[in-house]
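Q: My collaborator sent me two sequences in one message, no labels, and asked for predicted structures for both. Can we handle them in order? The first one she listed is below.
A: Yes, handling them in the order given. First sequence, followed by its structure tokens:
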Amino acid sequence: YLLEKERAYLDEVTPDIFGFHALQIGMAEVDFLRENRITHKLRVAQSGTADLLAKCHELPIATHSVDLVLLPHVLEFDEEPHAILREVDRVLMPEGRLVIVGFNPWSLWGLRSAMGFSRNRFPWNGHFVSLLRVKDWLALLGHDVSAGRLIAYAPPFDTERWRRRFAFMEPAGDRWWAVGGAVYM
């Protein structure tokens, strides 16, 4: 459910970002940049089937050489999110684009995570970082936030049946509870 919504948003936003090099750091098993037109794309992760195996805060990539960096749910699952953003700032070109996808602690999903249910399973084992905190970190690095969106307002149910029952929350979320989306981008 959430993966489909994230892919739909990224498929809509990333095709118009141009350049020569793009990085997707984290979640290498999912190609979130599939609709992007940049020809040289790398998926980076610490393990698994990534194109480049590296630590997120120690990228073996030249300074100011990447046009687009995508961070799908990376900041909330690393012990040093500041270091990741500093490293991304280093490799990103001066006019480059950074797309961050993160779990919102001020949502029903964040509430479930805070209550400790399934604390040893993804995504509940992450430390959800608020959008305001991420904006502060980006401002300290000299980045401007140009656009964004929150998605997935329904409660975090495991079954499709329960998600359908609460489908009314999706259209109402943007209008009545804008800060309550499970994911910010």
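Q: And the one she listed second?
A: Here it is, processed independently of the first:
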Amino acid sequence: MTARIFISYRTSDGMDKATALARDLGERFGDEQVFLDKDDLRGGSSWRDEVQRAIGAKPVLLLLLTPQLFSATDHSGALRIADPNDPVRREFSAALDAGADVLPLCCDGVDSPPGDLPAPFDRLGDYTWRKLRAYDWKNDLDRLVGDLAAQGIRPAVGAVSTASASAGAATHPAPPRRRALLGLGGAGL
């Protein structure tokens, strides 16, 4: 199955939120429907080709809007989002070119998409955005799950529904693939 949800983020301040989001969306829709680079890129593969292939399938691109997404600079002090080779910019541009749905998520520290951004980020104002905040994670996630379902993404067989996840999220184990990855990290301790 091709991933229907693609999570794009700046690693410097978005990796934890992207990882938690992939885990929680994987519980609801199935891991195979959620693409997160650090979990889904095979060793030895060309990450640019794999990302292009995943975005070419026109998933819903969840763009995590974090403070560093907009303010990160390169070694010369230039904004990374202005660099055509910036990975987040490449993912967003590819999604726009492919005609994929884009859903910006304003994370902690970002109240709304800023104006006056370089292309293609100047198009963020064209999209309805949602909040994804640590202090209101459950409510923000439930709303996002509803938005994704409205875009035709259906829970996988055996996936946890929003209602059952809300009732007992602490008692549900992580999805099999992500649980296995978490287990490998503990083996080296």
